[in-house]
Amino acid sequence: MKHSIVKRAISVAHRSVVIALFGAFLLAVAGMIERSIFESWSRQIDARLQRASHIANQISLFDERLSMFANMAVASSDWRWVIRYENAAPLLGRAIADATAMAPDAAAGRFATYGKIANDATMNMERQAMGLVQKGQKSEAEAILNSRTYATEKATLASETGRLVEATRQSLQSDFFSVVRFSQLSKFCLVLIGIGILWAALYRNLRRSEDVFAEAEDDIRYLAMHDELTGLGNRRSCVEVLNDKLHDISIAGRKLALIAIDMAGFRKVNSLYGHVAGDTILVALAKRLRADEDSGTSAFRVGGDEFVVLSEFANDAELEDQCNTLIRHLEKPIAAASGTISLNARLGIAKAPQDATDPQSLYRKADIALQQARSEQAEGAVHYNTSMDDRIRSRARIETELPGAIERGFIVPYFQPVVELSTGRLVGFEALARWEHPDQGLIAPDAFISVAEEAGLIDDLFFAILQQACANARMWPQHLSVSVNLSPTQLANPNISSRIRAIVEEAGISPGRLEIEITENALAANFTSVRQPLTDLRKLGISIALDDFGTGYSSMQHLSELLINKIKIDKSFIRPSVDPQQNAKIVRSMLGLAASLGMKTTAEGIEQEEQAAELHRLGCAYGQGYLYSRPVSRLACLAMIERWSPLAARQASTIREVG
Ligand code: C2E
Ligand code: CA
Ligand code: CA
Fold first, then answer.
1. Is 444 in the pocket of ligand 1 (CB under 6 A)?
2. pTM of the model
3. CA of 614 to the centre of ligand 1 (A)
4. Among protein residues, the one whose CA lies closest to atom 7 of ligand 1
5. Has residue 213 been placed in a domain?
6. Domain check: are 288 and 324 in the same one?
7. Helix (H) or strand (E) run with residue 418 in it
8. For ligand 1, mutation pick of 432, 606, 609 (most atoms within 8 Å of CB)
9. Nearest alpha carbon to residue 620 among 604, 601, 605
10. Ligand 1 centre from 606 Cα, in Å?
11. Which among 402, 435, 448, 485 is the best mutation to test ligand 1's pocket, defined by most ligand atoms within 8 Å of the CB?
12. What's the domain range around 37?
């Protein structure tokens, strides 16, 4: 994942909080501006209201004064009152002009008609009265000022002035209400705009956080469905794709193969060269599988070194081609830091709809075919067939029954004689495990040794055989040795040598009579780890024989370092082959090698007189095989020792395995 989803979600949430705070701040600022505008407007309206009532007062005041000056002028005939009158007259005019300017148009218009006429009329009458007094006509002058007309005009002026001021006040009041309304409206709009901006910003953020979560969900889904190392789909995605493909082919009437792939030797490389080399190999294999993908195939990594390819195919020939291509590509050498590595691909195939139509069964059957490919070490692909199920079932039964069989002593050693080739003398026996099954009779070790190894029962089995083999050897003449087979995996057990010693001591035989056989393959893989247990065994006086020699890859240096006493030439080199010359050459060089390292040799699988003679001629010391005897029970073994003679050895092949 690129960034932590938590971090990204928190950053989006932060941004949302900041946006919300910013929105609130904007709203508060807008509210404050609105408030201050409202207050300044209402102050202005207030001031104008005060001014209007002030002007109204002035008008009545000046009007009163003018009347008073006119009356004083008429009463006293003093011309100074006339002067005062004329000085005051413009003040009234200006106040009236101010009032008209402030007033709404309609009221101003009305005042200009009625108020001004009344004012002009009173002033005319006053001036006329003052003029008459100057001429000495005092009573006429008084008559004018006391006339009804004069009083009416005066009253008209007063009432029109009152009306004008009232109209002004009303208009200002309505202005005030407008301001209040405007303020409310603007407040509403501001809140609306604020909410709008906030919503838009938050919505954007919401979408972004949705994207973040959707992306995270994609990442999680990708991780859940893919193998991190190789980028191939994992087991879960394999099951999903398999489901879909099975559905598709069932509708279209096509065929699908589930090819389970296992790379033989991968684990060994992993433990020998480390996980970095292992990872390099897996990545390279995944790359090849992906390169082979087309519209009809898809590849998955479903386990450590296990891959699955789903492939649609038209006919068996086409599928065979696909498998061959797969094997060819997968087995190409891989360059790793530790050198070039080649692995063998094992393929197990199950087909739909032929073998199964549901994913679980198809998967299981491909796995069964793969197990078969592994145990057969098959070169090509192994196709599932129903007989494999029986094998699996019997293997499962063995796995459940084996612990009880070991405990109850049903696993017993059978003994096969080892003969000195030069004299035909009996030198010892190899103990080979047999399962004396109450229902199924004698079961050969091939059927249960590998199960015991896989199920972790091999130590118990080995100690049971060793203990019985030693107990039997105690009853034999002292010069006869006994060999027991040790599985490669057991060498990893650090207590192996001390437990072997305890059993040998308990049985009361000399450790020099015991030989432990280990296969050559076991050495090739873990040279360093087997050195200590083998050295410990040698120190106890126990001999070590290298079993199945020629089938592994041990170097001469390893052989000499590991204090091996004996090599047992594998029976594949002894039995008649297409190229006897070649086999003879190999055997000769193995014998030469053993001689140069001071080791003894036993040839396994001698079935014919001529083979024994030829091996003796080539310098092989000991022989073992059906020519002398098959492995026999402990009682038959005692009888064999009793009757053994160099001559009898020649006819020993007539002694049949008892069981
Ligand atoms: P191995 O140790 O190589 O044993 C020799 C096998 O060759 C035996 O098979 C034996 O019966 C068979 N054999 C002997 N002479 C001839 C012959 O002339 N011709 C042919 N064709 N075969 C011959 P067996 O007893 O079936 O054992 C098979 C393998 O099982 C053994 O191979 C050994 O690897 C393993 N095994 C047997 N017992 C034990 C045991 O107690 N522990 C372990 N770890 N492995 C065991
Ligand atoms: Ca053996
Ligand atoms: Ca062998």
1. yes
2. 0.56
3. 23
4. 605
5. no
6. yes
7. strand 411-420
8. 432
9. 601
10. 13
11. 485
12. 5-207
Nearest CA-CA partner of 242 in 308, 318, 330:
308
- Per-residue confidence (pLDDT) for residue 656, from 0 to 100: 41
The CB of 626 under 6 Å from ligand 1? The reply is yes
Which residue is closest in CA terms to ligand 1's atom 33? Answer: 485
Which residue ranges of the chain lie beneath pLDDT 70?
1-5, 295, 524-526, 552-558, 578, 645-659
Which atom of ligand 1 is the closest one to the Cα of 627? 18
Report yes or no: 451 and 429 within 8 Å, Cβ to Cβ. Answer: no
Ion ligand 3 neighbours, Cβ < 5 Å: 547-548, 604
What pLDDT score does 647 carry?
55
Boundary (domain end) residue, out of 365, 385, 405: 385
Spatial separation of the C-alpha atoms in residues 587 and 583, rounded to whole Å: 6
Specify whether 124 is located in the same domain as 46: yes
Ligand 1 and 625: CB distance under 6 A: yes
What is the rounded CA–CA span in Å between residue 73 and residue 645? Answer: 185
**Nearest atom, ligand 1, residue 606 CA:** 18
The rounded Å distance from CA 646 to ligand 3 centre is 24
* CA neighbor of 591 nearest in space, from 417, 424, 426, 421: 421
Q: CATH code at 600?
A: 3.20.20.450
User: So what's the pLDDT on residue 99?
Assistant: 86
In this structure, is residue 221 part of a structural domain? no
For the segment 409-421, what is each residue's pLDDT rounded down to a tens digit? 999 999 999 999 9
**Which of 385, 409, 441 is the last residue before a domain boundary?**
385
Could you tell me the distance, in angstroms and rounded to a whole number, from the CA of residue 651 to the centre of ligand 3?
A: 23
Q: Are 283 and 173 part of one and the same domain?
A: no
341: domain CATH number is 3.30.70.270
Residue 229 domain flag: no
Q: Provide the number of structural domains found in the chain.
A: 3
Cα–Cα distance for residue pair 229/220, rounded to 1 Å: 16
Residue partners of 478: CB distance under 8 A and separation at least 6: 510, 513
| Angle of helix 5-76 versus helix 105-134 axis, rounded to 10 | 20
| 194 close to ligand 1 (CB < 6 Angstrom) | no
Instruction: State whether 518 and 555 are in the same domain.
Output: yes
| 380, 487: one domain | no
Q: Does residue 43 sit in the same domain as residue 113?
A: yes
| 302 SS3 class | coil
CA of 483 from ligand 2 middle (Å) equals 8
Is 227 a domain residue? no
Specify whether 275 is located in the same domain as 317.
yes
469 and 608 within one domain: yes
- CA dist list (Å): 120 to 49, 117, 237, 287, 485: 27, 5, 107, 113, 147
